[in-house]
Amino acid sequence: MVSSLTHLVEVDLLRAGEPMPMSGWNDRSDYRILISRGNKRPRSLLLPFSVRQPIPTFHLPLLPNDTEPLVDLGPLLHALYDRSGYDLRLDYKRPPEPPLDEADTAWAEEILRAV
Length: 115
Fold this sequence. Notes:
Elements: E1 8-12, E2 31-36, E3 45-49, E4 58-59, E5 70-71, H1 73-84, H2 86-89, H3 102-114
Antiparallel strand pairs: 1-2, 2-3, 4-5
């Protein structure tokens, strides 16, 4: 894959496990989007975000001279969540797995109290 000219978009929405290591980036984030354009490797665009932040939008790499659409996964995932009835299946009184850090736990509890 590294020697290919194929574009890669990886959307990591899992907080569990170890994320793929990135050269030159040692911070932590809850979630990440990696956009690796075949013609720009080994450079890639990393979009890290936390549980408190909306999913960032990004341009989907296509063929040269094609208009790259802006991908906004947030509304799509919210609609899928609503349609699938996850709010009826998940017990939000139980702590999340893996656990949130102390500040994010307080933030989540505040949101759940407001609903």
